[in-house]
Write a structure and sequence with these properties.
Layout (H helix, E strand, L loop, with lengths): L9 E4 L5 H12 L3 E6 L13 E3 L7 H12 L5 E4 L14 H28 L4 E6 L12 H21 L4 E8 L13 H10 L9 H11 L10 E4 L12
Parallel strand pairs: 1-2, 1-4, 2-3, 4-5, 5-6, 6-7
Helix pairs in contact: 1-6, 2-3, 3-4
């Protein structure tokens, strides 16, 4: 048996119309899993051939439960979940509004929490074990300028991963996390000036900003039999961004 193979497994990947989520879905497909993709808009042109795509807004009150119901209707064999949906709505702290704060937590925390709950309920109802990976961020460990709501939400995701791992372990469901560093995605494309890119390349010990594909392998590992004795852990995928205090001058 190939411990890293996902043959015969089936995964739902939220927030997978572009960026990291789309790359993760492609990586799971390459490892042999069936994948169901999700996005607020879509489908993604580069999605794995034949993969179902569910267009749904997780900010809707019943969005998380409705997504999971529809995903299981498309593929009743689902046993893997990647909670990757998220967004960045920050402004400087003194300008932050309750609406922006609540939108950040509604998408980054509440939606992922209740998608995981609905997914776990479906697995338990079927007597089926499974595995969940949730996307946190290096921002959950280290703050960033003008990112107070996002940073706080990702810190909440770090604890959510750990508490769900403890809660779901007796039910045969493992929960782990991914903490990407600086990754070239549509989410941050407009935020990275040439000056900032030069700064980060000096700070990242591998000397480059990451790509969405750099995140896929860690998720394949965390969902595969190779990680069967791992739960409640978070893999940082940042090229060494958080390793060095100063970086190259």
């Amino acid at each position: 048996m190939n411990s890293f193979s996902l043959e015969g497994r089936s995964a739902l990947v939220t927030g997978s119309s572009q960026g990291i989520g789309l790359a993760i879905a492609a990586g799971l497909h390459e490892a042999g899993a069936r994948v169901t993709l999700h996005g607020k808009t879509g489908p993604a042109p580069a999605a794995p051939a034949g993969a179902p795509f569910i267009e749904l807004d997780l900010l809707d009150a019943d969005g998380p439960a409705r997504l999971v119901r529809e995903a299981f209707a498309r593929d009743d064999g689902l046993d893997l979940l990647v909670g990757n949906a998220g967004g960045f709505f920050d402004v400087p702290f003194l300008e932050m509004t309750a609406e922006r704060w609540e939108r950040t937590f509604a998408l980054n925390v509440r939606a992922n929490y209740f998608v995981a709950q609905a997914f776990a309920r479906e697995l338990v109802a079927r007597g089926r074990p499974g595995a969940i990976v949730a996307t946190a961020s290096t921002n959950g460990f280290q703050p960033e300028e003008d990112s107070s709501a996002y940073d706080t939400s990702k810190g909440a995701m770090v604890m959510m991963i750990r508490t769900l791992a403890q809660t779901l372990a007796p039910l045969g469901i493992r929960v782990n996390g991914l903490a990407p560093g600086l990754i070239n995605t549509p989410l941050n494309a407009g935020l990275l000036t040439d000056e900032k890119r030069d700064h980060y390349r000096k700070k990242i010990v591998q000397g480059r900003i990451g790509t969405p594909e750099d995140c896929a392998g860690a998720v394949v590992f965390l969902l595969s039999p190779a990680s069967r004795y791992i739960t409640g852990q978070i893999i940082v995928v940042d090229g060494g961004l958080t390793l060095s205090q100063i970086g190259r001058l």
